Amino acid sequence: IPPPSSPPTVSRYELQKRRDWNTFGHYLKNHKPPLILSRCSGANILEFLKYLDQFGKTKVHNCSCPFYGDPNPPAPCNCPLKQAWGSLDALIGRLRAAFEENGGRTETNPFGVRAVRLYLREVRDTQAKARGIAYEKKKRKNVKQQQQYSI
After folding, report:
1. Where does the record place the ALOG domain (predicted)?
2. Which member of 99, 108, 135, 141 has the greatest number of CB atoms within 10 A?
3. Where are the domains of the chain?
4. 55 exposed, middle or buried (CB, 10 Å; 0-12, 13-18, 19+)?
């Protein structure tokens, strides 16, 4: 007799993607007035990302703060806690995938619109300056260089 088959294990990424999708669904339902996914625009996604800031744990110094640009501030300050750029970027990636897995079309995916990409870039740059952290873009290797090395 074969052992009882266990349910397929779901990756951490898939579990997080499902949680994120459910969270976004609750946000739509609790929005005043309630929003319908098919009517969601980039503006609604930006509003959602800004709403999430209240649950953030990353200190982002204001321009007027004496610790602005200091990666290791010597004392506490009253600057706000926000969602870290990397968290928002990963969240949008998961929601973008979840949207299409739940029947949405790539062309109408509100998580992939230009306004969302620009907002994420602005958050990244603002947080980098405020926290004194440089976000280096990973450089892609030049295809011609790779070909030279492989010959």
Report:
1. 12-139
2. 99
3. 12-135
4. exposed
